Amino acid sequence: MSSVKEKRFRKLKRKKIWPSIVAFILFTLLCVGMIVLFLQLFALYIMGTKIVQQYGEMKNVKAVINGFLESGESIADAVISQRKYTFGENDIYVMDTDGEMLIKTGNSEPDFELVLDFKLDRELGLDEGFVAVADSENQFVHDNGDFTIFAMPVDEVIKRTFSPGREDQSVGSWLSETIITQGYWLRAPLGDGRYDAYVKCIIQLQRQDVFYICIFGIIALLLLMIPIILLFINTIRSIVTQRRMTQIIYLDTVTGGKNWFYFRNYAERILTRKINSKKTFAIVNLHLERYQNYCACYGVKAGEELLEAMDGFLKARIGKNEFFARFEGADFGMLLACEGVNEQENQEYCRKRMRSLLAELSGLKPDQKIHFHAGINMIPPYVPKDGKWYHTRKNVDINQLYTYANAARVTSECAEERQITFFDQEMLEKQVWERWVEDTMEEALNNEEFQVYLQPKYSPLNGKLVGAEALVRWISPTEGFIAPGRFIPIFEDTGFVTQLDDYMISRVAKLQAEWMIQGKKMIPISVNVSRAHFAQEGLAEHICQLVDAYGPRHELIELEVTESAFFDDKDILVKTVKQLKAFGFHVSMDDFGAGYSSLNSLKDIPLDVLKLDGEFFSGDDDDGRGQVVVKEAIQLARNLDMRVVAEGIEKKEQVDFLASQGCDMIQGFYFAKPMPIEEFEKKVEKDA
Ligand code: C2E
Ligand code: MG
Ligand code: MG
């Protein structure tokens, strides 16, 4: 996955739920704060109205006393007269301007240390001269550092609110019963400032006051509960959505298990964990063979059910620090934790484990034959350069590691008997080489890096040079000399071999035309034509055009087809060979005897030449059986009116034997190796 794609994916996955949770918590706190604030304000308001009322009463007391003072009474008499005259219940405490107490009624007195602050002086319309101080018998006045306030303990208020009333009491009188009484003193300057007096007031909290506050609180709470509940539902919903989304992102829709994206993240986390850096792991590519065929026969649904069953099976077989997921198609990736103490043991551990896993998996569908292959890429412990313990694996690319396991598995498919294959450096080099060849082959052809080498063919009868085979050599400016065995199979896989064959045919035709013009001795040259080429319609005309572009005689060119080509579409092959022959070209069967027997093909295809494979002559032939086969093969070719060329001849005895059997030509290192054209031309002058 590209980094941009990955980022987008991660972003999607990481859609945060915490903003909703934080929003919910903040909103709830805000609501609770607001309720508490409102309740406090309401309580203050109730208290405030009581205080305003008592402040008015105090002013009346003050006016009456001032009246008595104005009529000439002493301050003591004025206070007593006021109490008598107005039946005043308020205690009074009078001081002179020096603070000396002159007269006081009642048992308690103001506590000048605690000046009360109601916080609502202005809102309640209290004037600037309003001063209130606590009573010396104060129960509920507190100095909290900043200001002094009434603060009744909540539990006390609750206890008193819900205390049972007297039995004979009506509900109304129970409600209006005073539950808390607290005295305080209001300042009342008397006699034009000659006296400083304080009038005692009593603040009382009735049960109904508490109920008012509670009802107000409950209503506020109910009103605020609606948005809180809505927000709560929304938060829960977004959490659920987020979870579902994460599940979907990580869901493999075929197996119902975790998908490859999850595997990659998980495996990467396991491998890069510090604690795991000293352990050996293995990334496995598990491949179910012929899945498409299974789906075609039993249906896609059955195929998917099989993959689902595999998922369930593997889930039950993996341990701690291990994981698996479907990669694509019928390929699963696995991360295995190895338990051996060295490389060999770990490999053996993986092999055994996979062997038993594959055996069990093969029995997953008792009535159906299913077959698996596995490629394993071992991930050795991480060895840091400085040897320090705290390092951990870096740049772990699970896809890359898996690709190597997959490459190993693909190789194991070639060797059917090998069900489990380990990835090694050689495989990587092979892959790198194949990539290099594919990347550079076209440019190399354009740059004429491919050169024609010619290997002479000799007559065993007179030892004269009578023919040659054109063999390609790649002279790369970077890699140097490259033998065809290293690139022809890759060209065959990619189909590029047809372009190379065309190039070689053209080069040979050109060479022959040059020889003709220069009046040199004309030597027939055979050119290899790959089997991929023979699948093409109109090949004969195509070759004809290539050769005619230079104009040599057609019979000087022979086309070699490998024996394996005869197993492809025989009808096309027969048709092409006949056409080629009709155009005057010679056609030979290359590598006869190297693969499967194609005697049958000899019957149907009118070939000119049979090239006996070098395998016939390699190794010892102590019992002479090899000679019998060669002798019969030559006889067979002769009877079919074909000429015989023996390839890979390296010894004199072989030449002598072939000469005695009437072999027409010999090609082999005994006479000459493939060589550049100039060298060949010199050889022709000498040997032809
Ligand atoms: P081939 O067509 O059977 O070519 C004969 C191979 O045997 C050549 O290998 C040649 O060098 C080798 N050879 C000849 N005499 C001896 C001997 O005495 N001892 C030993 N050990 N080897 C001998 P080379 O050139 O490496 O080519 C290998 C194969 O590559 C060829 O087998 C042919 O199948 C393919 N090839 C080469 N050039 C071309 C080409 O231009 N087009 C196509 N399609 N295939 C080509
Ligand atoms: Mg050949
Ligand atoms: Mg050959």
Structure commentary:
This protein has 21 helices and 23 strands. It is of the alpha/beta class. Strands 14, 15, 16, 17, 18, 19, 20, 21, 22 and 23 form a 10-stranded mixed sheet that branches. The chain has a 6-stranded antiparallel sheet with strand order 2-1-8-7-4-3. Strands 10-11-9-12-13 form a 5-stranded mixed sheet, sandwiched between helices. Strand 7 and strand 8 (195-206) form a beta hairpin. Helix 14 runs parallel beside helix 16 (539-548). The longest helix has 53 residues, at 18-70. The mean pLDDT is 88. Residues 590-591, 611, 613, 647 line the site of one magnesium ion.
By DSSP (H or I, 4+ residues per run), the number of helices equals 21
Terminal residue distance: 63 Å
Helix percentage range: 40-55%
What ligands can be seen in this structure?
Answer: ligand C2E, magnesium ion
β content, as a range? 15-25%
Uncertain runs are: none
**Looking at the chains present, what oligomeric state does this protein adopt?**
single chain
- The secondary-structure class comes to alpha/beta
Strands, count: 23
Instruction: Tell me, briefly, the overall form.
Output: rod-shaped
Major pleated sheet: 10 strands, mixed
- Report the mean per-residue pLDDT as an integer: 88
Alpha-carbon Rg, integer: 54 Å
